[in-house]
Structure formats: C-alpha cells, structure tokens
Write a structure and sequence with these properties.
two-stranded antiparallel ribbon; 29 helices; 2 strands; about 0% strand
Amino acid sequence: MVRFGKRLKETQIVEWQRHYINYKLMKKRVKQYTQQIEAGVLERRHVMKDFSRMLDYQIENTVLFLLEQQGLLASRIAQLSERQKGLQEQLDFSQITELREAFRAVGQDLLKLLYFIEINAVGLRKILKKFEKRLGYKFTDYYVKTRANHPYSQLQQVFKHVGLGAVVGAISRNLGELQDRQGSYLSIYDQPSLPLQDPIIQSLNAAVDRLTHSTNFLNFLAQHAFIIQDDLPAPVDEEAADKKYHLMSLLLNLANTFLYMANTYIIVPSADDYAMSLGAAPTVCGIVIGAMAVAQIFSSVYFSAWSNKSYYRPLIFSSIVLFLGNVMYALAYDLNSIGVLLIGRLFCGLGSARAVNRRYISDCVPLMIRMQASAGFVSASALGMACGPALAGLLQFKFRAYKFTIDQKTLPGWVMAGAWLVYLLWLCISFREPAHDDEAEQTHVESNHGEQAAVDALEDGLKKPLLPSSLESIQDEDEDQEDRSEEAAQESRLAANSLRSAYRLLTPSVKVQLLIYFMLKYVMEILLSESSVITSHYFHWTTGNVAVFLACLGLTVLPVNIFVGNYIGNIFEDRQILLASEIVVCIGVLFSFHIIFKYTIAQYVSSGLIMFVSAEVLEGVNLSLLSRVMSSRLSKGTYNGGLLSTEAGTIARVVADATITLAGYLGESSLLNVTLLPSLLLSVISIFATIHTYNSLY
C-alpha cells in the first residue's frame, strides 16, 4: 500500500499546494510531542490545546480557500446560465454544443475541488489516528464534538458541504436542459426518471456520493455485506474495476448468493421429520443443518484463496459440488442412510462461494455502484433466506418416480439440485472472467507508463467526520529521509498470510465486534434451526406451518433495514443503536424461556420476532463499526476481514447446531430452555463488553 504522504505529494494540484493538509509538518509535530512528553517537558492538556489550535488554523485556511473556489465556480455558472437564456427562443445547435462544453469545463473544475476535499479529509483522519496511536490520547472524539456543532465551526462547511451540492445541482440542471430531447427544454425536475448520460454528471454524482456519506437504506444494507475497502482506493484501481465490471457476471454472483441461502434454509422445516424417518432422534436435525456450516468453515478459506486467481472456476466448482450434495441429500431416504444425508449436507457446505461473491463485488464492481451491489448482495441473501422455507412449505407432495421417493423430505434436495444445474448452465454461457490484479497492472503499465496518478477517492461510508486541512512544502532533508524509511516500512506491511497473522492484527475493539457477531449468529441459528422441533413439541405445527413462520421472519429483513437506514440511523449514533440492539436481543431471549406458565404461540412468535429483527439490525450496525476499526491490511488477500467475520458467524452456527443436538439428549421438553441459556449468557457478555470497550475508547 502506498504511503499517504507520498500519495498526497503525487496527487496534489500544484497551484493549490499551500492549501493542502500539511501532513508532514503535523506528523513531525506529533513526533515532537511524543519526545517532549517522554522527557516530561509537556503536560497532556498543553499538547491537546496546542494540537487543537494547529488543526483549527489548517481547517480555517482550507475552508476559506474552498469558499473562494465555490464562489468562482458559481460566478462562471451564472454567466453561462445568462447565455443559456438567450437560447430558449431559438435552436442554435452550434451554440448549444459550445455551451455544453463550457458547463462540462466547470464540472471538471468542480471535480478537482471535490477531490481536493477528499484527499484532505483522509489526510486529517490519518493524522488524528497517528496522534492517538503515538500519544495514547483519545483526541478525535473530543475534537470533533467540541468543533462540529459550534456556531463558528469551520467543520460545518465541509461536513455539510451544502454549497458544493448547490453547484453540482446547477451544473446538472443546466446540462440536463441542454441535452437534446427532440428539441425540447424540459427540466430535470419535470422528468426525474430520465437519466443524464453525460459522463461529467456521472463523475460528479459519484464524487458527491462519496462525500455525502448520509446514512440511507442502501448504505445500511451494504454494511451487512461487510465488503472492506482500502483506505485510499486510487483512480487507477477504479479504472481497473470499470474494465473488470460485467453486469451479467455480477447478477450471476448475486444469484449464487440467493440460491445458497435458499439451499441453507429450505431443509429447516422438514429436517426433524427427515432425521426421524431414518431412525434418528428429531434433535439430530441440529447436526443435519449444521453440517453445512461445518464444511463452510473450510470452504470459506480455500474459496477466498482461489478468488485471488479466478472467479469463474470457483463458481463452477461450487455449482457442481452443490448439485452433487443436494442429490445425495435427496437419495438418503431411499438409501435409508443418515450418513449419506450428512455427507450431502457437507458437500453443500463445501460449495459455499460467498467469499467469491464478496470478493467479486469488492474487486470488480466500479466504486460508484459498489454500494448498490453490496446492498444487492444482502437483499439476495435475505430473499433466499425467506424463499427457502417458503418453498419448502409448497413442496407438500408424495409420489414415486422410477425408484425414487418424492415427498416433502426429499423434494428440497431435488429442487435445489435442479436449480444448481440450471445455474451451472447459465454460468457457463454468460459469465465473463475479469482480468486479475497482476494482469490489470501489467496492462496499465504498458498503456499508461509515465503518467501521474490522479486524485484518490474518498473512503467508503461515514467512517470518520469529513474534515479538510492544508499542505505546505517542507524541505528538511532529515525529515525526507525519515519519510522514505517509513514508506519502506509501510510498503513491507503486506496483507495477512494466515489466520494466525490476521488474528494478531485484531485490536480489542475488533475482537468485541467479532464477539457480538458470534453472539447474534448463534442466537439466530438457535431460533431457526430448532423451530421445527420446538413448534412440533409445543404447538403440533406441521412442516407447512413452520415454513410460513420462517418465511415471515425472512421477509422482515428488508423492511426493518429500510426503517433503520432511513430513520433510526439518522437520529442515533451507531454505537447507541448497537447497544440498544444487544439489549433488545437479550430481552427477546429472556421472553422466550418456558418457566412457569403454559407456553403459547403468541409468546414464541413474538419473542422470536424480537430476537430475529433486533439481531438483523445489530448485524448491520456491528459490521459497519467493524469495518471502521479493522486494520487496512485485512482489506485484501486471502485472510481478509470478510473471511474473519464469515468464519466467526459460521463457527457460531456450528456451535448452535451442536448445542441443539446435545441438548436433545435431555429430552424435547428441556430443549428450549437449555439452548436459550448460552444465548442469554452470550448476549449479557456482549453487552458488558460493549459498554466496557466504548467507555475506554470514548
């Protein structure tokens, strides 16, 4: 990864040089603070005051320059708008073309200004992080809270950037009205459904989206995907992603996600009946369901490694293995073999290509639509989770075809085998293998040798407050030598090459987030996997009843995310939503226990709904916070942050399914309370860990 100081020097606009963040100077100041504090020369309060004053000056310098540039752009747009008024009565296409080019030129200058803000925002975030790491002070939260809402705060100009939005809107409107629509001059406000195809508008919208970082539905959904990005994805990387992008290939990855989730949960309503028909206890359904998760622990690693070289071949392998696994699952009844049943489910787990699906979105989808693709990944997962049990509820048939039994127990295997076969054919016909990093880099070197890299793109998501500052040139040779040494050290910090090295990169706050993820996956798996046994024992539900219940739970995912993303997320901080969700999960678990009174359908359904919905909200917020505190070294390579979170969730599912099977030896009447006890313990531990962690950090 390229050092930020070096990247900053390479991408700055020369004439704006003195307005960029003086990253080198502030880094030098942080080093001085460290030495002076160790020598006992300075106290903490003096350091905080001095560094705050330094940041205030640089932010003010940058904001004043920003306002100046906004005014110049606004003046140019006003002049061009006056010229456009003269074209309202006559159609002079040569003047229209000239005017459009003039507006595009303004748009290009605005892009420079947007990139100027981006690089300064990331630079300030990095120097704040360096300050906290070197001195051990929790300075960022203090600085932002004391400055952001002050009436004279310069942060508001950049954090809100209302003026920039108005300039972008003016350019978009004028270019939209100049666009040739059969000679008419309809406003973009009159025809909002008509997309503006002008490339400069698309570039501006992408830049504004990265700056805005407003919490919305797509953003909140995308958090569930946990697709980690580098701190500073370069335009070269964006260009490479544009070349790799293929819509049909993306749709095939989303279809793989949908089918896999449907495959996971389609057997849940009938798993206990299937186990009993083969002579096992109904609680063996925990092993049957969990076998897929056991295999996924290993498949996630080799699929993640495989995706470094190819996307097409792992998806082909996944489809074939899942086809075979489902055929074995369906044949187990006629073979009267619980072993074949479990091997079939293990094969299904070995075909889990979710690591490939995530990696494809991260590496091959352009930045401007990556959030939508990530939201599509989560939506496909949620839809598959709902459709699986719903489809099981519809497969209420019983007949024989040749020598095979076709009924509600075997049909899920046959249906999914057919679905994977169709998917395999579609994959072979339509998927296009993108060029990988080494090929793309070689192509770029050959075609663009000697060109200077453009400005870096802003980090994905609202990870830290958006703050700008300034840059001045420092000619100190000793400092330059230090920079070169640090750059060499930084470049030597490659991606983690094993699970052990990845684990060493985890900070205490990251470990807490992974604990929360483990807890919520455990709670959800207990609820879903034992639903057929619990409802059959207490309420005598049929497979169809269980299927409807699970489908209804799955269908709550998207509405809940819409509500949280559009409303709750705009009112409360992520940390507040995180803690509140954990508490609600704990309440749902407590409400689920059967202690004294008769266990009713209302109690089971309402407590299950509380647990499931709050766990879904918790997952999105937790992964959002996890992506902020995860080391950038875990954004690439085989052993990345996505793999770690997947492994944590998969292990939680395995432990939950094993708990169900072991608790079954105590009898079905004890199953509910015994399996809920670990859920309660985990939820309480996660609450206290969250409170302790964020009290120490903030």
